[in-house]
Inverse folding.
């Protein structure tokens, strides 16, 4: 008898705890309307931080990029604030040893991924990811990271 009474008491407490409240909380919320004289700030559109807006990307980047038939390509890429660039590449070792190529042109930030810059046709539309004090060569077709154990980064020269 005591077990039954105890079980019924516990069950009724649990049922009461799970029941809906009778008080409507929306009645407690007060709506405040601005007066006609109050100034309302115009809607502000949040802009996402991108490499273009949040990084100091202009500058000179240098490094040795991988090469299929040589020891590497000594590369210098200067990105200027007016969105122009100068690209200098010098082949190290192998057949093209000592050959130097210089290209100048313009670049743009990729619309789909604003952390990627795209060099113009003069530089074969090459793509680089822009990071904090470095750029990294990316796949020309997709802009995706090149999956390799080789280093595709150019480091920014800090003056």
């Amino acid at each position: 008898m005591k077990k039954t009474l105890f079980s019924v008491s516990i069950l009724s407490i649990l049922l009461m705890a799970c029941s809906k409240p009778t008080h409507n909380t929306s009645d407690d919320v007060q709506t405040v309307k601005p007066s006609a004289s109050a100034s309302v700030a115009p809607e502000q559109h949040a802009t996402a931080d991108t490499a273009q807006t949040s990084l100091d990307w202009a500058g000179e980047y240098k490094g040795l990029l991988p090469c299929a038939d040589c020891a590497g390509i000594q590369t210098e890429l200067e990105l200027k604030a007016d969105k122009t660039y100068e690209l200098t590449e010098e082949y190290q070792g192998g057949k093209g040893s000592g050959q130097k190529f210089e290209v100048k042109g313009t670049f743009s930030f990729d619309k789909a991924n604003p952390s990627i810059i795209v060099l113009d046709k003069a530089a074969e539309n090459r793509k680089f990811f822009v990071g904090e004090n470095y750029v990294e060569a990316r796949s020309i077709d997709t802009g995706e990271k090149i999956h390799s154990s080789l280093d595709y980064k150019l480091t920014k020269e800090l003056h």
Remarks:
- Residues 51-156 form a domain with the Lipocalin fold (CATH 2.40.128.640).
- Residues 2-21, 34-46 have pLDDT under 50 and may be disordered.
